[in-house]
Amino acid sequence: MNQQGIISEKPGITILDIRIAAAVAICCITSTILNHFGLKLTYVEMHLEIIQKMTACIACLLCCQDTVTSSKKAGINRLIITAIGGAVGVGAVLLDNVLGNEWAMAAMVAVGVLLTLFLCKMAKVPYINARIGGVTFILVSCTLAGNARIWYAVLRFISTLYGALVVLLVTWIFEYFQRKE
Hints:
There is one protein chain. The chain is mostly helical and about 180 residues long. The chain has one domain (about 15-180). About 75% of the residues lie in helices and about 5% in strands. The protein is built from six helices and two strands, in the order αββααααα. It has a two-stranded antiparallel sheet. α4 runs antiparallel to α5 and α5 (about 125-140) packs antiparallel against α6 (about 150-180). The longest helix is centred in the last third of the chain and has 33 residues, at about 150-180. The chain is globular, with a radius of gyration of 18 Å. About 35% of the residues are buried.
């Protein structure tokens, strides 16, 4: 702890860092293999990744903790906020498809962020997670066009779930071998 009372980490690579990197590598490899074999969801002319590399890897970064129990809790929180942000995003997309007005959509984005934050707080997730739920809402409602956004939301949830499961597996394996020592 330094003079300002802030805990500082020593530079270097920790076991947690290695677990995070291993989980990220597994998600990258999985996504790459699926893409290599053309296993994508095709919607209109778009080819959407079934396991979104970026989403799965971000889930690894945010969910990987020191123990299986804490990683599981982080994963559950991540799934809750992804589901809430995605569901609110899908609602905004459906309304946008009816209204078709970019000015109305701008207002819906602001209202959607508020609704996402509120619902995440109702779900009792930590506030920083609620903000990340807002990121999911914005990505779903603003990244693509038309109904492709709905498929993006579904695949984002699947990719988050996959990343969280990979984290649990990697954390369990590391804990298992650490106990053996």
